[in-house]
Amino acid sequence: MSVFSKILSVIIAVIIGCGGVLGVFYAMNYLANTLPHKWRSRILPWIYLAPALLVLTAYLILPTLNTIYISFLDRRSQNFVGWENYQFAFTSEAMLVAFRNNLLWLVLVTGFSVGFGLILAVLMDKVRYEPLAKSLIFLPMAISFVGASVIWRFVYAFRPAGAAQIGLLNGIITSLGFEPVGWLVERSINNFALIAIMIWLQTGFCLVLLSAAVKGIPKDIIEAARMDGASEVQIFWRITIPMIRSTLAVVTTTVVIMVLKVFDIVFVMTAGNQGTEVIASRMIKEMFNYRDYGRGSAIAVILLLAIVPIMVVNIRRFRQQETSR
């Protein structure tokens, strides 16, 4: 098929797709207008929500229910095995390592990303070239996890002592007279090396949101506190933090959800070897490498259950904010 034919096919597909959606909406709207007025106001919102609800049901709710069902079956999804897959998930050595690593990721990535983002957000207010500085820090956020992992593979690249080092860190270390370090193979440091990538990616995200919240604090409150003799540290802890608490909570929970889902960085950098396994990478291994769909689904359900409470807290917080406006 020529390039022209491909482009024409794409254009036709877009026209048919968009035209079809518009046609459905107009047809449903026409049908709603034929109903009595008291029914029209009740049904019309559901007509516009129906396509989104159908897609959500087809691509999220049904697959989730199917995953829960498969998690109680054996590796070929043929026989019912009860809680056996969940027992494996909470007792196998590989999964315990994955849980430990995920906990390490949660604490360090969330703490450092949000902490750095908050400190930078406060300091940025005093920087002359704030947009440029923000753009530079936010830039890694535009890079995919896989792309960032490829970049950092060159930073962490390792060659034996005496060989020419192509990795940035080992180049610096050997130029200072020290031995090169296997950043991704040394079990004592490889998890921290991977976590550093995630912190590098997420700090810009935290900075942008928290900076907007800091700028939303009324200037007269800050000036009044300074006139009363409050130091910058006191203003930070007693005014800035309390007044951006809701944004801080949203940023923190968003980072926590991202960390719980982390997979790309681990898979690209170490494939989960050398003690770097996390829950998501273990799920992929069980599901596609070992073809054990029961265990893979059980791990997926555990990951889902870990994320659900955080999402519920976020939704409740949004509702409280909406009602308080």
UniProtKB/TrEMBL annotation:
Keywords annotated in UniProt: Cell membrane, Membrane, Transmembrane, Transmembrane helix, Transport
InterPro entries, alphabetized: ABC_transporter_permease, MetI-like, MetI-like_sf
PROSITE patterns, per database record: ABC_TM1, PROKAR_LIPOPROTEIN
Main location: membrane
Protein name: ABC transporter, permease protein
Sequence ranges assigned to domain ABC transmembrane type-1 in this UniProt record: 99-314
Organism: Coleofasciculus chthonoplastes PCC 7420
Subcellular localization, as worded in the UniProt entry: Cell membrane
Cellular component GO terms held in the UniProt record: plasma membrane
